[in-house]
């Protein structure tokens, strides 16, 4: 299994169950699960900005979601994710 990581963010494409778009809960569970099992190697020093926003040293509160409209949109996003990883080594 190959694993790729970016130093400060991640991209993903999800297929959710029909009539279910509960992105906030899913992201909360992912972030919580990761943080609980983190061995602190991912921790960075909290900046004044993060402290003011109530953000931990790993995760931002915000995220961006995009509904894939069609096959072309899907292909473009898969290409972007792949290219982004290559671009950052």
How would you characterize this protein structure?
By secondary structure, this protein is an all-alpha fold. The protein has helices spanning 23-37, 48-53, 71-87. The longest helix is centred in the C-terminal third of the chain and has 17 residues, at 71-87. The chain is globular, with a radius of gyration of 15 Å. It comes from Thioploca ingrica. This is Transposase IS200-family protein. Residues 3-84 form the Transposase IS200-like domain.
Secondary structure layout plus pairing:
Elements: H1 23-37, H2 48-53, H3 71-87
Secondary-structure-derived class: mainly alpha
Low-pLDDT ranges: none
**Kindly state the mean pLDDT as a whole number?**
78
Shape, principal axes of CA atoms:
globular
Helix content: 40-55%
Please, what is the oligomeric state?
single chain
Beta-sheet strand percentage? under 5%
- Helix run count: 3
Instruction: Report, as a whole number of angstroms, the end-to-end distance.
Output: 18 Å
Radius of gyration: 15 Å
Please outline the major beta sheet.
none
Q: Order of helices and strands, N to C?
A: HHH
Number of strands: 0
Question: Key terms for this structure?
Answer:
89 residues, mainly alpha, 3 helices, 43% helix, 0% strand, globular
Summarize the structure.
The chain has 89 residues and is an all-alpha fold. It is built from 3 helices and no strands.
